[in-house]
Specification:
Layout: H1 3-27, H2 57-70, E1 86-94, H3 98-105, E2 115-122, E3 129-136, E4 143-146, H4 148-152, E5 156-157, H5 165-179, H6 183-190, E6 197-201, E7 213-220, E8 231-239, E9 249-255, E10 258-260, H7 263-272, E11 314-316, E12 319-322, E13 325-332, E14 336-344, E15 347-362, H8 367-370, E16 373-375, E17 399-407, E18 413-437, E19 439-458, E20 461-469, E21 475-483, E22 487-489, E23 498-502, E24 505-508, E25 510-520, E26 526-541, E27 544-559, E28 566-568, E29 576-584, E30 590-598, E31 620-626, E32 662-674, E33 690-698, E34 713-716, H9 732-735
Antiparallel strand pairs: 1-2, 1-17, 2-3, 3-4, 3-5, 6-7, 7-8, 8-9, 9-10, 11-12, 12-13, 13-14, 14-15, 15-16, 15-25, 17-18, 18-19, 19-20, 19-34, 20-21, 21-33, 22-24, 23-24, 25-32, 26-27, 26-29, 26-32, 28-31, 29-30, 30-33, 31-32
Domain Copper amine oxidase catalytic: 306-706
GO molecular function: copper ion binding; primary methylamine oxidase activity; quinone binding
Modified residues (2',4',5'-topaquinone): 461
Length: 753
Amino acid sequence: MNVKTVLILLGLALATVFALVCVLLTRGRAPSICQHLPPVQEDTQDGQSLVFADLTPEEMAQVVRYLQGNLGVQLVDASRAKPSDNCIASVDLQVPAKAEVLRFLDGGGARPPREALAVLYFGNQPDPNVTEYVVGPLPTPAYHRDVTVQKYGGKVPYHRRPVTGKEYMDINTLIQRELKKAPRFLAACCESDGTDLAILTTAPRGFKSGDRTTWFVLFHNVAGSGYYLSPVGLEVLVEHKDLHVSNWQLHKVFYNGRYFATTGDLEEEFVAGTLEVVKLKQPQADAVLGSMKLRSPPDSPGPLHFEAQGPRYRVRDNHITFQGWSIAFGMNPNSGPRLFDIRYHGERIVYELSLQEALALYGSNCPGGMSTRYLDGSFGIGRFAYELVRGLDCPYTATYVDRHYLAESDAPKTNQNSLCIFEHDSALPLRRHFSDSQSFYYGGLRKNTLVIRTISTLINYDYIWDFMFHGSGAMEVRVHATGYISTSFLHHQGTDYGNRVGPHTLGTMHLHHMHYKVDLDVDGQLNSLETQDMEYELIKDPWSMQNTIERPYLRRKSLEREDEAAFLLNAPMPRYLSFASPNPNKWGHPRSYRIQTISFAGKHLPTSSSMERSVSWGRYQLAVTRRKEEEPTSTSIYNQNDPWTPTVAFVDFINNETITNEDLVAWISVGFLHIPHAEDVPNTVTVGNGVGFFLRPYNYFDEDPSVDSPDSIYFSSEQDTGACGANPLACLPRTAGCAPHLPPFRFGGFLNL
């Protein structure tokens, strides 16, 4: 071997060693951090969406200061106000009239004045009542006007006001005082002196207008666990109508199937040995029914949602843009999430899409359970939308937005990170086809969706509210229920009203019904309602006349009046129901959007019920009415405490007016019957407990608009599918070969409680 050969081999060896060293040095190196790119779609609205924006904390504070200085009465902070005081109950945005807004958005008109709606409780006057004022203009108020009579046809009686936190505190004090009259009974039944028992309200409060008498259910309370699964069998009825707290009384006591006049009477029967007592041990934190504490050590993390080049949507103030979609979003402290001016590729499809109400109606053989009909808007669907947990409630890298409200306090409060926005990859094609004949190719599009989400915790239940926007021009609205079931103490024939889920716990049957307002403006404000469904016709076979064939055909119908367009709950409804424009698409069909509901609703309250009119929206799975500025909502926060004379009765909206070429609103009810079972402990799961509806284009376009999506995939057998230029999927190893930038996990959701 000559020297030259040795040198060549030595050089090759050194090169090999160098390459191996490089591989070893880079093997453990972390990938580079993903570089975010700005969204392709720019926000060109120039602040127009702010006409719908929720009030800022500064605006709320200005309204409070104005009212304190201009009403001429003493106002007590609602957080400490007695029923006999005057106070500011809430302040929210007064949404401008639609005509004013459209003149501004579409006609170049002036921006409507920014105003607030203030609700005040006047208890310190000869005629106690609830009054609503519009206050403006913001940010520097100079006027207020009483709109109560204009909205409701008269003053709102004082007994209809929602119960405040201070009122609940005073009731709790009364109950604790009364429980002290039965010390031996409490020690025997519950290993308690009463002070460690949790107290849960029911609603409504009585049997007739003017009543304010509430059943309260008592539970064992264990820190760090849901007390809702541990009833002790004791319930008390409290009358709290009087303006003076000292005059409130405990009217009735219920225990284990029996009723007593007072806790003293209950104690006497126990001492006399004539009371059957179920002795419950104080539950221990490590063994309590329904504990959510970890039972297994953490596993390796699951799949992570992240955007390799940053979010493809854009959030600016209260406005979101995403691949042709444009949405203004907000939150009503009472009724919850609300969206406005929803456009697709510049065309308005929906003017308003808002949650109206959530009803939970229970059955039981205990008084608290059997009388419960919660109307959650009166408690505060938006107010109790707390901070979302990053990485569980929403994807870790979602955009989180704070929401502000003013309720039962003179100072605004903030639920930080209580609304999230993210793009969701459903791991399902939106459309696809693999061609295996004539020519060989593949075409498709991933089903990526923009999601706007918030979650409300209303006592025991957690409602997940989703608004989703698809690449096909469709909108999807969905709600899932989770959280703890509400329960009763199991006694006698309790399983006629649910299932046993614990030693002495009855999971009580109930229904969840939700109501939405959808103000569709399909290719303009003037729309008509059209239905389509199928029938069969028996005809002679055209090519063999001795035979017959059952041929399906399309049955089309235009609904001309409101009564025709009010579809009763659980009754047959046309499978295709559309808001139609008078203008045709390229193929001569009316440009339309179809309403498609997904619901498993229980039975509506019988119309013979004295309180049915207060929830009469629940009669209908869908009702279409002419839009009226004086019919902004289907219910009222005052309906909960006086359902016998409802402040707003939705059924009155339906009066057989014409709905042809008019500005129309769809009112949609969805829901499900829930019979709790063992698997609802500790929490009801979201699987199978989701309902909602779609708004889908129906001949609105000339073809599926998603064909223009930049995410579309197409390649043929003649192409190199592994080449990035021919197939964008082949680019992923390079474009997504980076590590996401994850912000530190923080949670401040307990700070505002």
